[in-house]
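Long-time lurker, first post. I've been practising inverse folding by hand and with some scripts of my own, and I keep getting stuck on stretches where the structure tokens seem ambiguous. Below is the full token string for one chain I'm working on. Before anyone asks, I'm not after the true native sequence, just a reasonable design that respects the backbone. If someone could post their per-position residues I'd love to compare against what I wrote down in my notebook.
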């Protein structure tokens, strides 16, 4: 595992949270495992190639690494994430599954990756909504665009919603009900709502699409929807 000294903006994904992440995320994100399985399918069918080198931004505890490596023994995955505790969980998981030879882990943001050949595909699952729209979202998208070959597919999952809209308020209410029905206690639901209010930088889907275009990607096409969480496919534009 390589490392740089780039500190994360806020220690949202500290080691203690990392240990609980895999259980928590499956209880609060409707269709989390389906999102990851479909993300792999979308890349496989969008021209990644059988021997693809895949850039995995914000790999966290490694669900997408596990899913993609199992399904595609010919792929090599380069994963980055500034949260060391999250990548430590990913490393153990990959070693236990015998998949570690297919993956390089790097503690840091995408821009801190050592220079290497252009990637054939990329993922950025549940990461962008943590960054403010003050140039940070654009910088992350550009850092991926610069590292992809023209035409390469990107799957990106985000909470791209307008927080002032009736649709948003409805989705939030529906999400609360869904969690209650799943047996999550009131305190934990309230904690999740506070996390959203404090840590998520929402932009409407139109702005999300404009940011992707500005960074050098084609307009996003939806392939997954789970209340507030949406999965999209786009491609690095052909002109570089
Ligand atoms: C909600 S987790 C998602 C993890 C994983 N992709 C998944 O689907 O479960 C968000 C991850 O993004 C990472 N992250 C935050 N800012 C980042 C950045 N600028 N570049 C790369 N990763 C970042 C966090 O450290 C965290 O591990």
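-- Answer (accepted) --
I ran through it position by position. Result:
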């Amino acid at each position: 595992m390589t490392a740089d000294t780039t500190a994360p903006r806020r220690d949202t994904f500290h080691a203690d949270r990392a240990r609980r992440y895999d259980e928590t995320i499956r209880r609060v994100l409707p269709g989390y495992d389906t999102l990851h399985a479909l993300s792999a399918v979308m890349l496989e069918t969008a021209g990644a190639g059988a021997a693809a080198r895949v850039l995995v931004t914000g790999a966290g505890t490694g669900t997408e690494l596990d899913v993609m490596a199992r399904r595609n023994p010919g792929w090599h995955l380069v994963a980055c994430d500034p949260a060391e505790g999250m990548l430590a969980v990913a490393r153990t998981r990959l070693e236990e599954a015998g998949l570690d030879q297919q993956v390089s882990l790097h503690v840091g943001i995408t821009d801190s990756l050592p220079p290497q050949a252009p990637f054939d595909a990329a993922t950025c699952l549940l990461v962008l909504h943590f960054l403010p729209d003050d140039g940070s979202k654009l910088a992350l998208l550009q850092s991926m665009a610069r590292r992809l070959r023209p035409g390469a597919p990107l799957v990106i999952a985000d909470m791209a919603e307008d927080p002032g809209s009736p649709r948003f308020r409805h989705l939030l209410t529906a999400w609360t009900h869904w969690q209650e029905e799943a047996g999550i206690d009131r305190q934990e639901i309230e904690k999740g709502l506070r996390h959203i209010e404090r840590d998520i930088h929402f932009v409407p889907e139109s702005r999300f699409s404009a940011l992707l275009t500005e960074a050098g990607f084609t307009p996003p096409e939806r392939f997954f929807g789970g209340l507030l969480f949406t999965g999209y496919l786009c491609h690095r534009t052909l002109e570089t």
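A couple of notes from the structure itself: Helices lie at 15-28, 32-44, 63-71, 84-96, 136-145, 166-181, 186-199, 205-215. The two ends are 30 Å apart (CA to CA). Happy to go over any region you disagree with.
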